Every structure is written in structure tokens, then in C-alpha cells.
Amino acid sequence: xxxxxxxxxxxxxxxxxxxxxxxxxxxxxxxxxxxxxxxxxxxxxxxxxxxxxxxxxxxxxxxxxxxxxxxxxxxxxxxxxxxxxxxxxxxxxxxxxxxxxxxxxxxxxxxxxxxxxxxxxxxxxxxxxxxxxxxxxxxxxxxxxxxxxxxxxxxxxxxxxxxxxxxxxxxxxxxxxxxxxxxxxxxxxxxxxxxxxxxxxxxxxxxxxxxxxxxxxxxxxxxxxxxxxxxxxxxxxxxxxxxxxxxxxxxxxxxxxxxxxxxxxxxxxxxxxxxxxxxxxxxxxxxxxxxxxxxxxxxxxxxxxxxxxxxxxxxxxxxxxxxxxxxxxxxxxxxxxxxxxxxxxxxxxxxxxxxxxxxxxxxxxxxxxxxxxxxxxxxxxxxxxxxxxxxxxxxxxxxxxxxxxxxxxxxxxxxxxxxxxxxxxxxxxxxxxxxxxxxxxxxxxxxxxxxxxxxxxxxxxxxxxxxxxxxxxxxxxxxxxxxxxxxxxxxxxxxxxxxxxxxxxxxxxxxxxxxxxxxxxxxxxxxxxxxxxxxxxxxxxxxxxxxxxxxxxxxxxxxxxxxxxxxxxxxxxxxxxxxxxxxxxxxxxxxxxxxxxxxxxxxxxxxxxxxxxxxxxxxxxxxxxxxxxxxxxxxxxxxxxxxxxxxxxxxxxxxxxxxxxxxxxxxxxxxxxxxxxxxxxxxxxxxxxxxxxxxxxxxxxxxxxxxxxxxxxxxxxxxxxxxxxxxxxx
Length: 730
What we know:
By secondary structure, this protein is mainly alpha-helical. 64% of the residues lie in helices and 5% in strands.
């Protein structure tokens, strides 16, 4: 839990979204597997098949009839459970002990007189009253006088004590198992379980067979056999009884783990051939497939879920590292992107149900993945959009049924869409790009259909589905893009291009009331756009942010030096009041931008282009006036430090342009280079770039770009001779 708490919240949220998306895709596929059961109602025994039946996927089918037969057979073979009755056993053991003591032992000592027999009989009756009549006792006593009979009886008693005597239920209940389970109770509710072969199960009928074996083995007379039968009938009891409840529980437990009978069919297997007479086996197989349930659902579901989640989460982590996706404006797009994927999955499922493609054509052509390919470059750069489309194509492999031709179609259309849309400048260009991609999809699907060995008819169908896919995707993007831009207030290329128009009312007002600020903003835009290009940031966003970064100055333009003509309003103000006026322009600029509905990324640049840096001039004036007792906070901007590369670049361009413009005369290249380096180093030293995703290498490239452009803008021109002066000198 501690490690989880240390993970960024967006990573945990992204993981949750990834799992939900994977669950929706893989779970929906399982539902479709059940809904897309094939129909074979036109196949009957004895009829000629009018079409081939070829499986378009691997199928493992549960043969319910064979499974029922297996369960019935296994049920008969489950070993029944018997329990030893301790009370009966103890009674029988006590009576056996009396027989040994009062019958076998006296007879073995040779007691044979009538008085001796009478005395033994009365002692027996005192011990076990009513068990034997005098004649029956005499029969046992006389037989026990023979050693071989005593040996046979002792063997029989020992066998009964060791094996127990089973009371068997009817054969239907008993089943046909080769063994039985004998449970011998222990202390409490525990027991010791023993497995006994059915051949070793001792019953009353089996005891009669044993006695007959003794007759032959020992050569007993009829009277001696009669004595053994008498002993069994009076002293041997059934002490092992059938436990119906335990037997049923054991049977249910064993049957629950019985594997169903599964018939495996491979993709491409020909079940029925056109023109052949249908047999009973053919129709039985078709009926089985008609109502099939994919037996491997749990396993395939698990692996597809893990596969989809891993691929999508890896893509999320790679895309998340992009600096321009760290801003607050990016959060809304992540939510939109997740919703878009959910809608694409659900729409794909709906199209598969409403417009199922014919056999041979992958259902992957129904997934409108080009929607993402046409959407993403409008929000992201080309490289990042290509990466996202690549990951999404792999993520949707389960939807494609892991069909490589459908995957290649999706990947080709996705990459092509990104390359075509990247760099478009007008909305009409987006429509034109989608139409071009639709035309390109036709030969692409034709080639892929040929590689998949499809028939000409199937190739034509594949081409039609592919072209319709791209065309519908383009129409959806064209219709939804303005709505998405409005809902997300996103800095799309189209929105930024509209804001970059210098004829917008806001910029025209700036030119009219604050021409110096306007000129400054144009130069900052030139610097920021060039710097953004060399470090891989968004040049268009940097340019637009530069145009409007000082828009707050149009409220009081005369308080800013670039708009002043001879008179400085601050000469008559206290430094603290001047500082308040200066730093208010950033806050006022944010208010104007929000009122105009600017994208959040542009508003962030306006709010962050000064960070919380010190207003050095008025701070130093206050220090001089107050003798050093001055709060730095009162003379610092109240904005946040730049959080994006574009905001940081605009901050640097703004500071550099103002610093170089303040150089007197016509500064040399070396002077410009020195001043630019000093300004950037000061921003870095003051911590203004701590939160911006810029490296030292990026800052070096930015510095070189600033110097190159500024040096070119203030280059020295040659002096032309004064024509009038020359004429006078002639």
C-alpha cells in the first residue's frame, strides 16, 4: 500500500481506465461469441449440402451428450462410503470373548462329562443369557473339542474382527466401483478412511461361502459345519453400514471435477463439403457447433485481458512522458480519449451484430480506428500520434481475432491518417485528407485480401468494407471535431490558426491602443516559434501564446514603456503602486482570455509568462527610497512558474526581446549574445524554469536561436549618400 500511495495519481487513474477498457473489449468479445452462433437449419440427414461449412476460428466445443454419458458412468464408479458401527462392534467383541472363555477354552481342556458340560452351560447363561439353548451350546461345545474346528472358528472370528461384516444396500445404490471406502470413527467427529477392494468385503452371504470352504479345506462333518453356521447366526453381526449421505457428498465432489467431453476444431476445418450427402455424423457435428459454447472462455478471456491491458498501459506510460501532456489542458483530452475508445469498441460490437461481414472477411474492418488516426494529429504532434495509433492497433488485436491482415489494414489506415492530417491548416483539408485516405484504402485492402488468399468476391467485399470504414470515420471526425474543441476548449491546430489571424478584433485593438506592445508581441512570437521548433515543442501554440501574452496591457497601455512617447507615468507614482500596475497586466490578460474563450493552454502561457519573478526596477527604486526595508513579495509577479515548454519559451522570448531592445545604439552580435545569455541564466538562477520540462541542451538551442534572430533583426545597414548634397557639390 505504501508503494501505491507513492505512485502519481494519473498513473493509478490511467491503470484503472486501461483495465476498464480491456474488460469492455474482451468481455464484449465473449458476449459476441455467444451471440454469433452459426445457423445450420438448412442441413438435414440425406440432403445434399448446398454450401461448404468452414470454421473461421478455432473452437473447442463441449459435447453435452457425451459429457452426460461420462457423468452417468462416473457416478456408477464412485466408491460407496461405509461406516464402522462401534457399538455393534464392541458388543460382538464382548460376545466373542465369552465364547473363547466359556466354550473354546473349556472344550480344549478335554471336559466331556455331562456334569462338566452342564456347568459350562450355566456359566455361559449367566454371562450371555438366552443366546443359546442347551442343545445349541452342547453342539458348539462338542465341536470345540476338536482342535481343527477351534482353529477354523478362531480364524473366522479374527477375520470378522479385522474386516467387519458389511450390510450392503441394493446393487443400484452400491454401483459398480471396484473399491469401497471404510470410515472408522476416531475421537470427536474425525475418522480414519480405509480403501477396501470389493473382493475383500465380508458379508453374511460371504461368510456362508467361507464356511463351505472350511468344509472342504478341513474335512468337516455336517455337524461341525452346522456348529459353525450356528456360531455365525448367533454371534456375528453386521457392524459396517452404508452411509448414504457421505456417499452422495463424495459422489458430488468427484463429479464436480469431471472434465467435460470436448471436441476440438481448428480454423479452416471443413465440416461439410458442398455437393456431398449429409450423414448423421455431419448433422450431429453441425448441431453441436450451432449451440456451441467456447470451452476455453476463462483461459482465453484471461490471456486476452492481460494482453490488452499490458499493451494499452505501456502506451499510456510512453505517451504520458510527453511534456505537452503534463499541463492541465491535457487532462480533459485524456478523458475524451478514453471515452472515444469506449465508444469505438461499443460501435464496433454494434456493427458486428447489425452488419456482420461474410465468411473470410475479418470483423476487424468494422472497427472505426481511423477515427483516432484523424483525431489525434489535431491535438498531438505527428510522432506521438503515430505511436498512439501503433499501440491502439495492437490493443485491438483481440477484436480482430488476432487476424494479421485486419491488423495490417488498421495499422496502415491509422498511420496514413496521421501523416495526411498532420500539418493541415483548414477544416476543409481534414475532409480532403479523409477522402484521400478512403481512396488509398481500396488498393490496400485489395492487396491484403490477396495475401489472405480470399476469393475475388471476398476481396471485393473486403475492399468495400475497408473504404466504408475510412469514409464513415472521416465523416464522424468532421462532425464531432468542432463539438470536441468546444467541450475540451482544446488548443487544436484549427483553433490556434484561427487565433493566429492578425485581423482578429483583439489584436487589431492592441495595434490601435498599444502599438509598442503589439510590435513587442510580434517579435516575441517570432522568437518563440523558432525556439519551439528547435526543441520539439508546439511552434503554433508558442506563436499564439506570444501574440496574446501581454493582452492585459491594452487596459492601461500608457503605463508600459514600449507604448510611452516622452512622458513616463511612473515618474509621478510610488514604486509600490507602479509595481501593482505592472504585475496586474498578467492577471487582467487571463481574465480577457477566459472571457474570449481561449484554450486553456494559451491562458496558461498568459498567466505564467512572468512566473513569480521580481519586478527588479521598481524593487530597486523602493529599496533606495525606503532604505532597504522592502518586501520582495510586494514587488514580484503573482503568477505560477511555467509548467510547459511553450510557456517557458514565451517567458524567455519576452524577457530577451525587452532586454536586447534596451541596448543602446546598434548592438553588436557579441553584445546581443552576452545579453541573451545573461537573461536566460538569470531566469534559471531565480528558479523560474524549475517546473518547466526543458533540459540544458534545450536552453542552449533556444539561446542560439534567439541570438540568430535578434542579430538579424538589428543588423547594421550601409549608409547611402545624400543625393541633394552630392548635387550641390557638383
